[in-house]
Amino acid sequence: MISHITLGTNNLNKAIEFYDQILGLIGAKQVAKTEDVVFYAFPGSDTKLSITKPHNKENATFGNGTMLALKVNSNELVKKVYQLAISLGSTCEGKPGPRNDNAYFACYIRDLDNNKIAIFHRDNSVSA
Q1: Is the dihedral of CA 46, 47, 49, 55 positive or negative?
Q2: Phi and psi (nearest 5°) for 96?
Q3: Which of 42, 56, 58, 102 has its CA 20 to 30 A from that of 96?
Q4: 4-8/48-52 β-pairing
């Protein structure tokens, strides 16, 4: 099982403002916070997301080929999260729409530190 996934940030306060709003739309809540890191928990999951300043004091950088995918319960919520993320300063990596022969509905964004995030909905009748 995955305990948590960590994304780095160069401005924790701005990242918290961003993720509180984005993750709040899908029901996630802050469960721990220090001056260097914040953890979010998701409903129905033991896996958490942490946003942190790098421990080695170097600049946070995004991973090329790395992506966080967040599953939501409707296509409408994909659209809402996308619109909110763009209004908060995200960059578009793929507007909301059907993907992979309609196997799922998704959008792709970059957060304020350029981490790539997918927001997707997959009909429960479609296998993963």
Answers
A1: positive
A2: -60, 135
A3: 42
A4: parallel
Give every CB contact of residue 118 below 8 A, 6+ residues apart in sequence: 67, 68, 69, 70, 106, 107, 108
Q: Is the pLDDT of residue 124 over 70?
A: no
Which strands sit side by side in the sheet containing 104-110, from one edge to the other?
67-71, 116-121, 104-110, 91-99
Q: How many residues does the chain have?
A: 128
Yes or no: say if 9 and 24 are a contact pair by the CB < 8 Å rule. no
pTM, rounded to two decimals: 0.87
CA distances to 28, 64, 76, 112 from 115, rounded to whole Å, are 18, 9, 23, 7
Strands (E), 20-128: 29-33, 37-41, 48-52, 67-71, 91-99, 104-110, 116-121
Give me 125's structure tokens. Answer: 């009748």
Q: How many other CB atoms sit within 10 Å of the CB of residue 21?
A: 14
- Which tokens belong to 57? 């004091």
- Per residue in 77-99, pLDDT tens? 999 999 999 999 999 999 999 99
